[in-house]
Specification:
The protein is of the alpha+beta class. It has 18 helices and eleven strands.
């Protein structure tokens, strides 16, 4: 995620309703020192303690009307530099509210042939919109541009757009082009991930039970986020205590908390604003993104990727050596160390992604995308998002799966909340990850513990 959500925009902009990045960990200016939580402080919170005025009917309507007015006035601009500069933000709004998609289409398609003359950030933004909204229509315009995209991030997004459009024969053409255009591609995390995607021989999935039973680093709690490939359905988050046991509800059922790891862009985890990368993260605490108009006031678990966190911070120990892939592998059970898909977090850290958080949501996603398969989840800009319910009259929090997750984790953590997060894709199926599936995997993992 390119979140810096609570880092880049102040609460004043929220009050003004200026929404530049709409779903999840997106770029907003922070208050100078966002409040942080200890385990004790997290455990003392109650839903009624939290309120977010924009979740009330009146607040949501005011925000939506302001955003849609901005969207329509921007789309009405004449063709020229002003509209081009505004176009990425307008396309964000169109995707967020699922409106004016047809109106914006010709504007984006008209901008694509001129991409080589634009800066890399604008290329990235427009290509991301093409991938999100119009892959089929954009693909014939995008493929001829590949030789003119020297930066690997726009190139990779363009390639993923062609793959999303299922352009015939494009896999072979990309496998040939990448080494020609980027002879040092193995040194680039994005291109490494892209070439892995193009590899026709899918690696065999190691036993999930071995990962769920792995100590990672003994003595720390772990959140396991179990997700479907493609991320179109909501997954489940489990909490493992430092002693290796998975937490249960009061009635003895497995604690399994809904959590979505889907980015609105649908791009892979090594790309800015792409899906939450699969792999291992460290958890370094909890804080709030109180200035972010889509995350809201519920405390998030602050997770960090390799490289974003130093080795010492990742290990929660005194270490001074630089990161290597071998260091990342040292946390994993042997059967998972050679499994390339689980190295996505390692590659994402190398690619510069950061601040991929586990947080709640104040977005009324079901109102804008009522038929979406990912409901009751909310797509983000790369974070892990747990559903929340807010009072439509007062904007006060009624219930929060995110608060349940944070408090379950805090209940078995030290005051610093140090621990780990594992995001792992499980069996492909056309539906959410179910508690029954999770229980079977946990029981298989628990059966391995006495043998270790």
């Amino acid at each position: 995620m390119n979140a810096r959500s609570w880092r880049l925009r102040g609460a004043a902009l929220v009050l003004l309703g200026v929404l530049l990045a709409l779903a999840g960990c997106s770029t907003v200016q922070p208050p100078p020192a966002p409040p942080s939580y200890t385990a004790t402080q997290l455990l003392a919170l109650r839903p009624a303690d939290l309120q977010w005025p924009a979740t009330s009917d009146a607040g949501e309507q005011a925000q939506r009307e302001a955003d849609l007015a901005r969207l329509r006035s921007g789309l009405a601009l004449p063709d020229g530099p002003e509209r081009l500069a505004a176009l990425p933000g307008l396309l964000d709004l169109a995707a967020h509210y699922d409106t004016e998609i047809d109106t914006a289409r010709p504007m984006l398609l008209a901008a694509l042939p001129n991409l080589p003359a634009l800066d890399a950030n604008t290329q990235r933004a427009l290509l991301t919109a093409a991938h999100t909204l119009y892959p089929q229509e954009a693909a014939p315009l995008v493929e001829p541009l590949l030789p003119q995209l020297p930066e690997t991030k726009p190139f990779a997004i363009a390639a993923y757009t062609l793959l999303a459009a299922r352009v015939p024969g494009v896999e072979a053409r990309l496998r040939e082009r990448i080494p020609q255009q980027f002879p040092q591609w193995r040194d680039d995390a994005r291109l490494t991930a892209l070439m892995q995607r193009l590899d026709s021989a899918a690696p065999q999935h190691p036993p999930l039970a071995e990962l769920l039973a792995a100590p990672l680093r003994p003595g720390y709690p772990v959140v396991f986020s179990l997700q479907r490939p493609g991320r179109q359905h909501i997954g489940l988050a489990l909490v493992r205590a430092p002693d290796g046991r998975f937490l249960r509800e009061a009635n003895g059922e497995l604690l399994a908390i809904p959590q979505l790891a889907l980015a609105r862009s649908g791009l892979p985890g090594t790309i800015t604003n792409g899906n939450t990368p699969q792999g291992l993260f460290t958890i370094v605490g909890s804080s709030v993104a109180a200035s972010n108009p889509t995350i809201g006031p519920t405390p998030f678990l602050h997770s960090k990727l390799p490289i974003e966190a130093t080795v010492a911070e990742f290990e929660h120990a005194t270490r001074s050596e630089p990161w290597t892939e071998a260091t990342y592998d040292s946390f994993l059970p042997p059967s998972w160390q050679g499994y390339a898909p689980f190295k996505e977090a390692w590659l994402a850290g190398r690619a510069g992604r950061d601040e991929i958080l586990a947080h709640g949501s104040v977005v009324r996603t079901e109102a804008y995308h009522p038929a979406a398969r990912f409901l009751p989840g909310t797509p983000s800009a790369g974070c892990l998002v747990a559903p929340e319910r807010w009072d439509a009259s007062t904007g006060r929090l009624l219930s929060s799966q995110q608060l349940r997750l944070a408090q379950a984790y805090a209940g078995v953590a030290t005051e610093s909340l140090a621990g780990y997060l594992v995001v792992v894709e499980v069996d492909a199926a056309d539906g959410p990850v179910t508690p029954g599936e999770a229980l079977a995997w946990v029981q298989a993992a628990e059966a391995l513990r006495p043998a270790r």
